[in-house]
Design goal:
- The structure holds two protein chains of two kinds.
- Chain A contains five helices and five strands; from the N terminus they run E-E-H-E-E-E-H-H-H-H.
- Chain A is α+β, with helices and mostly antiparallel strands.
- In chain A, helix 2 crosses helix 5.
- Chain B is an alpha+beta fold.
- Chain B has three domains: 128 residues, Aldehyde oxidase/xanthine dehydrogenase, molybdopterin binding domain (Aldehyde Oxidoreductase, domain 4, 2-Layer Sandwich); 189 residues, 2-Layer Sandwich (Aldehyde Oxidoreductase, domain 4), CATH 3.30.365; 330 residues, Aldehyde oxidase/xanthine dehydrogenase, molybdopterin binding domain (Aldehyde Oxidoreductase, domain 4, 2-Layer Sandwich).
- In chain B, the strands form seven sheets. In chain B, strands 3-5-1-12-9-10-11 form a seven-stranded mixed β-sheet, sandwiched between helices.
- In chain B, helix 4 crosses helix 5, helix 8 runs parallel beside helix 18 and helix 13 runs parallel beside helix 14.
- Classes of the chains: A alpha+beta, B alpha+beta.
- Chains A and B meet through helix 2, helix 3, helix 4 and helix 5 of A and helix 1, helix 2 and helix 16 of B.
Chain lengths: 165, 755
Amino acid sequence: MNSSPERSAKCEVSFLVNGKEQKILAHPMERLLDVLRNALGLTGAKEGCGEGECGSCSVLLDGMLVNSCLVPVVQASGASIVTIEGISLHDLMNPLQQAFLECGGAQCGICTPGMILAAVHLLEKKPEPKLDDIREGLAGNLCRCTGYMQIFEAVAKAAQRRVAK
Amino acid sequence: MQQHHIVGTSVPRKEGRDKVTGAARYVDDMVLPGMLHGATVRSSVPRGKIKKISFGPSVDWNEFVIVTAKDIPGKNCIALILDDQPCLASDTVNHCEEPILLLAHAERHKLRMAVDAVSIEYELLPSVHSMKESERKSTIIWGTDNTLKNYLIEKGDVDSVWKNAAHIVEGEYFTGAQEQLYIENNGVIASFEPEYGVTIWGSLQCPYYVHKALMALCGLPEDKVRVVQMETGGAFGGKEEYPSMIAGHAALLAIKSGKPVKLIYDRMEDMVATTKRHPSRTRHRTAVSKDGQILGGEIEFTIDGGAYATLSSVVLSRGTIHAGGPYYWPSVRIRTKAVATNTPPHGAFRGFGAPQSLFALERHMDRIAQVVGISPIDIRRRNFLKPGQTTTTEQTIKEDIDLDRLLDRALELSGHDAKKKRFAVENKSGKRKKGMGIAAFLHGAGFTGSGERYLNSLVGVEAGSDGVVRVLVSSAEFGQGTNTVLCQIAAEALGLPYENVAIAQPDTTVVPNSGPTVASRTAMIVGKLVQSAAQGIKKTLEKTGLLGNDFTPEQFRSACREYTATHGALKSYARYESPGDVYWDDAKYRGEAYAAFAWAVYIAEVTVDLTTYSVIVNDFVALQEIGKVLNPVLAEGQITGGVAQGIGFALYEKVVWQNGRMLNNQMTNYIMPTSVDLPPIRVFFEELGNIHGAHGAKGIGELPMDGPAPAIVNAVEDALGVGFDSIPLLPEDLFEALHDDSLEQNVSEPVRGTA
């Protein structure tokens, strides 16, 4: 939680965000999520719970899937961060977005950016996932709208299309 | 038969691209220049008189904007039905977390400390924390008798049936509170300028509910309140009435400070302070013939409304009308009431009372089957409503529904009979017991009874000089597909490609009041109005000779260009007209309760693990008749999502209360289903059509919430031979019940009704 960040002095943090170098002044314990949303205007990562349960703030940090609400910004110093806004550069992006659209993987859309990043992360590790791998790979991202079935379908479809290429 | 080109196809979601790229704008993504952040100081006691408010010395209060009830320019209430809920408590509080005071500051992180630095002294008053206590009336906390609302339905002469009954079967059933748990918390931004009045941007379902509430609260005329719905990250009823409260708070802070104010709840505040599904208790007493025919029954349905009336009367109404389910009752007396307790008011949540009374009924049908000695299948077959018969409100079933056939198909799709036989053998050994459970149910679409007549919805369609058509409705998109299906309907009516139709952002200065986005009414009722408004555009262009009967999109565009050059804006409106033959008596609660019902049979397969006491749903078949399926992918998504919430309602989601306050107000300890918890949810549709809906559509959004809980709990009983009548059914509940000696004895005698 962001309890009293004003107690500590601001420090300079630099990192790569979506391939672009960023230098910002922030309190070291500020949440990466707040820095992305407020300082950098990257609002694709959402706050759902603020305690790492829902995954709607998911971003990739040096290739790892993290809840940006649990990462103090100082810990991201020097890291390469990818958010939903930057993922369009990724070769998995188009197939995943397209499949989410076709299969009904996005309803209200609030979990979607995090869900897609979790799917990217999964497919990087497992290009041909079985249903159980998909279930496991997305288990840290809650969706209240879909009941997940159409999300599973979308991820499977994106994987198939990529493998078929 | 009309040929459809767009309706009935799975065109992509209108706002889908923005959602999958992260570009969609939710209220928390919006920043206004000079914007402050707001916070709410809430009651820490369930009931009491406010004696003193003090502001601690640790905070420089000059930096803060402070609002109390004294700052309210208009009426201190959230205008809805009875206007009994204050916007800010002034002298007494009636539940924990009731808002008392508002703060705003430019830096959000300073607010938490400031909220903690406000201390409020109370003189405690006795409080009521259960329906039972409320009914006892030894402490009166609302009105003269703690009753927020009651209804009575009487059909036939139920008092005469008991003497002829072969069996009289009784049961009592309970459902718990449930949190909507949209992933986007409640939030709004308000601004105020004396010249333009108040503007609200928010996460909400019903722009005109907020509009009405703010006019009363701020004492402003219609044209000085503007409400804009932002992209909304899930709602499920949870953003039906509550946004009027949070919008009111932000507006008061904006009026006092002269600056825009953003008020966004975090998860803990959202869960502890906002509405949940009404807890319920249902008692059934049913007279049954020797072969399982229902002769008549008494049903008592009671819901816990919380501290203020808010929407409880309407939730109770739907629960009341659905209490008899899809069965024929020759006679019935249904007595229902909503009672007050000192908890935050319970409110709208998908299903709106029906999941509660249908859980009870579908459990009770299995109990009747046991007493009579027939199967859960046969008890349902013997009592299914048939065309020409009447419901409990004496509404004649005019559509050609064949529930027997629906049940047959669901049994086949689920492999019910073979599995049930196999499980009976396998369950004799081992610690993992399997079972099959059925629920048959119906869900009425649109507002109850005369509701749609009162709403008097208005819908507009506009064609621009560029030939782009815009649908103008206050019906909001929050995931369920409003934007998409309404655009499909307009495109179909105009014979234009789907891409040529857009939908206006709900903004009360732009869109007419098409009613609230609730009650499974949008596709059916608003959709039909969109269809006729769109046809109006076509007719206007034809009448003025600008367009022939057959035209290309290019011809439509030049016709629009010419029309707007000469006549100005090309708009067409359609207002709701009540079908002439609809009869409803509000006093007797008799007549045509709904213009259409959707019908369903759901079948659950479960495993109960007697080592961990967990219940796992292995397979779930959801078969429903919903009229015309307007968009198969979206429709399927409504069902899978509703079933998932229903599984949560049955097995996972427990609100733990202490003195009327939710204790587990975090996603860490209030558990909703994750991607590894759910079975394959297999969705099937039948399409009978419906004369009242656009292209024969009926309501669909709430239906899937009704069936999962009873189907699952029926399956648990099939697996264990022990019945459970209360949900949520968590492993600890199973453990306790199975280790309760008195219960085990009861279970060995299968007959629990009086024969």
